Amino acid sequence: xxxxxxxxxxxxxxxxxxxxxxxxxxxxxxxxxxxxxxxxxxxxxxxxxxxxxxxxxxxxxxxxxxxxxxxxxxxxxxxxxxxxxxxxxxxxxxxxxxxxxxxxxxxxxxxxxxxxxxxxxxxxxxxxxxxxxxxxxxxxxxxxxxxxxxxxxxxxxxxxxxxxxxxxxxxxxxxxx
Length: 177
Prior knowledge:
This protein is 23% helix and 22% strand. The strands form three sheets. It has a four-stranded parallel beta sheet with strand order 4-5-6-7. It has helices at residues 2-9, 58-63, 87-94, 108-118, 160-167; strands at 15-18, 26-28, 31-37, 47-52, 67-74, 101-105, 123-124, 145-146, 175-176. The two termini are 27 Å apart. The chain is of the alpha/beta class. α3 links the parallel β5 (67-74) and β6. The chain is built from five helices and nine strands.
């Protein structure tokens, strides 16, 4: 969303295509970003550049005919989002070898394996962190230590379920989850 707001502020016409139900516009940094849904809206316009952001979004990006340039923002090795033997591993893996698609990434490690494993030259765009949302605070160990568990339990690679098992072994008087 940060990248979308930056592009729109720079004068580009930005549209988010949601690969799910839901087409309410999004406000980010005071900028309204239009949203359309692949499930509920019909598409008839021309798109200069379409960027997929997850392996499943690349079906739409590669199949909609009226796109001048296609790209894939690779944010991780999405093949590992599914367990071994799952068909989605194969589908995710196929998206790293698409013809006519430019590759972009927000991490150097993704840039390296895209080159090493798939011979794709990905452009590196640093991930945007809004530092104002994370003010520096001197650490004070007088209270509980906070632990954040982030991720979807359905993504085995994130080990969210295992994280909760470990948290359950900690002293709740010392830790806030």
